[in-house]
# Entry
Amino acid sequence: QVQLVESGGGLVQAGGSLRLSCAASGSISRLGAVDWYRQVPGKQRELVATTTNSGYITYADSVKERFTASRDNTKNTVYLQMNSLKPADTGVYYCYALVTSGLYTTPYWGQGTQVTVSS
# Structure
């Protein structure tokens, strides 16, 4: 069994920073692409950043120049450094990962971590 656990969320003032972590544990042969999403009530989940095992990273236009995704494949952990936070960044942040265990690759969602940015 594989688990994804996000951490690092919290309450911060506008202009502040937070660093989210997404740690994968369990029977993992390879951690593939890992995405960060965020969701606010009443809206669809929004893709924030995508990372691949080879180091390719993309960002939503709304977070470019402010958010930086990175990963430590030796720890099966992906990070999202969020700077210059705005109230519009408020939401529950989820990681979504493709995990290979043996012969099979399966997608997993984390449980989410709340980020609240006050004005």
User: Anything to note?
Assistant: The chain has a mean pLDDT of 96. The first strand starts at residue 2 and ends at 7. The chain has no helices and eleven strands.
